[in-house]
Amino acid sequence: MSDKPFRIFVLSDGTGETAEQLVRAALVHFARDGLVISRHKNVRTENQVAAIFEEAHQEKAVIVYTVVSEKIRNCITTMAKDSGVSVVDLLGPVMELFSGRLKKDPNPQPGLFHQVNDYYFKRIEAIEFTVKHDDGRYTDNLLAADIILVGLSRTSKTPLSVYLSYKGWKVANVPVVKGIPLPPTLAETDQRKIVGLIIEPATLVKIRRERLIRMGEDPSGDYASMDHVVEEIEYCKDIFKKNRRWPVLDVTGKALEETATEVETFIRMSFPEKVP
Q1: pTM beyond cutoff 0.70
Q2: Share of residues in the chain with pLDDT > 70 (%)
Q3: Rounded CA gap, 86 and 8, in Å?
Q4: How confident is the model at residue 2 (pLDDT cuts 50, 70, 90)?
Q5: pLDDT band, very low/low/confident/very high, at 24 (cuts 50, 70, 90)
Q6: What helix, strand, coil percent values describe the chain, rounded to 5?
Q7: Minimal CA–CA distance to 181: which of 247, 246, 243?
Q8: Beta strands in the chain (DSSP E)
Q9: What kind of architecture, by CATH, is found in domain 119-270?
Q10: 6-110 sits in which CATH class?
Q11: Sign of CA dihedral 148, 151, 152, 154
């Protein structure tokens, strides 16, 4: 047997990441000693295709490709027949099937999946930021947040933050604790990105008691007592009155999705150009 490595050329009119990931997924099932994968990206002309096929023929390589352009796919098919190079079209058959079922020609613009992929990574970045800035942590970095939620303990700050982060928003949340000043950076950041959360006392008492019971703790302390909760809510309302620019949402009995939509509405009104 020849010591020459088995070569796979990944050809794409975009980044080639999709095709390479699929190739590597398939190769998990095979021994891969002496295997070389070469990626040829942004292939948009017949001359580029011809040069790749010439090299593939010399190297006895296989070409795996994802190409949107019908013209370039036809060129690849022709050159494969003429050169004897083995090719695998990962995208064409799927596009033809969808085109027939959806009664619509595919968008010929290359790289659209990579754009979607960019949005995916932006969401991951938003989630990581949100988790890091939960419950008043890293308040020195509030200026980097897209949204800042301010409210008492158990007013859905954390689940709401995480839900919004899955939509691409970088969210920080700051707890209101009676007698403890809010972080100075809250006053230094753009006030339009801050949203206050409030809740009815009876509902908050119920939520706190249920949480304490689930955690195996005594629910009869101040944290879940009506008198203490009422004091906390009045303290929180005083803060919101002093910061009249902050919209305040009552989360009592609301689904998370409903509150998230309201938060997004406020933010989009203040920042029409901002897209998560």
Answers
A1: no
A2: 89
A3: 10
A4: low
A5: confident
A6: 55, 15, 35
A7: 243
A8: 6-12, 35-40, 62-66, 87-89, 147-151, 171-175, 194-198, 248-250
A9: 3-Layer(aba) Sandwich (3.40)
A10: alpha beta
A11: negative
